[in-house]
Amino acid sequence: MADLSPVKGPESSPSAVSPPHPPPAQSLSLVQPSTKKKRKAVKVFRLFRSVFRSFPIMTPAACKFPSLPGGNLPDTRSAVGNRITGTLFGYRKGRVSLSIQETSGTLPALVVELAMLTNVLQKEMSLGLVRIALECEKQAEKEKIKLLEEPLWTMYCNGKKIGYGVKRDATEEDLHVMEVLKAVSMGAGVLPGRSEVDGPEGEMAYIRAHFEHIVGSKDSETLYMLSPDGNNGPELSIFFVRI
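== Protein MIZU-KUSSEI 1 ==
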C-alpha cells in the first residue's frame, strides 16, 4: 500500500517557491440542488432497512470485511433509491476526492477528501471491485447531525483500514472541475490541471458516473456506481455508516 501520510508543505523561507495557482476564476453555471424531498417507497424502505442493518461493516470487527473476497455482501441494488452524480477526482499523486451532486449541473452537495492517492484508486478500479467504507462513531451530542454531515470518517478500502476521510467545503478548484465536467454524465479521463507546470503528474484524473443512492437508516447510506457497461465494468460501492 502506498504511503498515505500527509505531505509537508513548503517551509517559510525567502527562497521558497510558491505553489502553482489554481485555474483562473470563471463564471459558474452550476445551480443550487433542489430542496424538494422525493417521495419514499415506505414499504420498500422498511423491507430493505433490515438488510442494511445486517451489513458486516456495521460493527467494528466486521469492518475488516472478512467475507469480502467471496463477495458475500448483500446485493440491495434492487431497492428504490435516488440517482445522483458522483465524481472521484484528484492529481495523479495527490489524494482523491469524492463529489456528490444532485445532477451534473448542480453545485456539489458533499465533498469528501479520501485517504487514498488517485493512482492507487485507479489501480484498485482496474481490478474490477472496489468497496469503500466510511465509518464514524455515534455520539449523544450528535444525534441531530445527518449522516452525510459528519466531518470525519475512518476509511476502509476492500477491507483494509487506510486512514481518514474528511468532509470539506468545495474549493474554487473543485467547482472549476465540476464546471468543466458539467456536460459529462459518465466517463473517465484527465484534465490539464497543473500539467504545464508539473508535466503528466500535474494532470487531474477523474471518474464520473451515476450512482444509486440508497438510505438504509439514519446511520446507513450507500452509493452504488451504475456502470454503462452493465456487469462488464468495474464495480464501486461506497458505504457511509455510523456505529
